[in-house]
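Write out the 3D structure for:
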Amino acid sequence: MKKVYFKTFGCRTNIYDTQIMIQNLKDFEVVESEEDAQIVVVNSCTVTNGADSGVRSYINGVNKRGAKVILAGCGAFSKGEDLFKDKKVFGVMGHSEKENINSLLHEKTRFVEMGDLNSLEKTIVSDYLGKSKAFLKIQEGCNFRCSYCIIPYVRGDARSQDEELILDQVRKLALNGYGEFVLTGTNIGSYGQDKKSSLGNLVKRISQIRGVRRIRLGSIEPIQIDDSFREILDEPWLERHLHLALQHTSEEMLRLMRRRNNVKRDLELFEELSSLGYALGTDFITGHPGESQEVWDEAYETLKKFPLTHIHSFVYSKRDGTPSATMKPEVRGDIAKQRLKDIENLVFEKNYEFRKTRAESLDILVEEKKDGLFVGYDQFYNKILIDSNRDILKEWVKIDNYEVKRDVNYAIFEV
């Protein structure tokens, strides 16, 4: 039986997609070390030119070792044909082909099977190798067309997974001991728009399944916080952390980025959610074309007003094939990097202040052990290091007394 190694780049959606492929393998053995594998499936990311370069570099390394490379994921659409023509990969498979991976890996001749951008897989994932929490891909694709983003062109328009299939998957995962569920997708806030439902209604139904202890959500657009979502904000099973994608806090930059959010409304929403006790994260891009010093200074002062606790920030990276790639004037790389550092430092301090003001027990799922300490995340999605006299890996623990350090919380848990 040939051995297969899966290398996953990019987002949580790719983590789920890799699991779909693993679930559909019948005639191959999945291994955890690429050195042991005759076949390497690369589930690629193509969100930036840099992401493409990282994938290409990894593939070059695998080729030197002599393993057969199969390219999957978003990079299959953006760079698959080029890599195939250059004989860097044996095969290229599109998103809709994940459930056909067993037969594709049997192919004796090189292949390109791109499939379509309309389908959704029906495979039910019932286990996650080595993971303490379960990922659920509830939708695929995006109807937004932000000027810097290639993803709608490689994952298609928004389409929602069947609600009953999602619930069936949650039941199976809960029976297998999973208590925390992370809802993911390309644009999860659009869930249900094509099925006369909504993200709020889906999450409410998931919460009613026995064994579900905490539900975490991937990134949501601010305009997608609707009435049905507001109805669940007080529920104890909803993680007290929400990630709302701002991308910028300048109206001029939002216009250039072709975003649908509005700075004034965004700030009002963040203040509303913060007043309910939520930790709040966001995405932010620095150095997008058109971000003059004047625009940046205004945006930075505005960002200070937001009650943020987490940030997923990027220096703008040109993505060929997007409108932003041809925009002028460009921002020097060193300036963009300094701006990135400034906002990361700002939000770091905001997170520290947030953690210092919490006067409540932390509900933690312990995910790993590293350097003699257990590592977990609380209901606010803050990391905590735990020194314990017994093995608490993959357990839920409630901690009342802990030390708030500048970079992380720390606790001693004794039984």
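The chain has three domains: 3-113, 134-357, 362-413.
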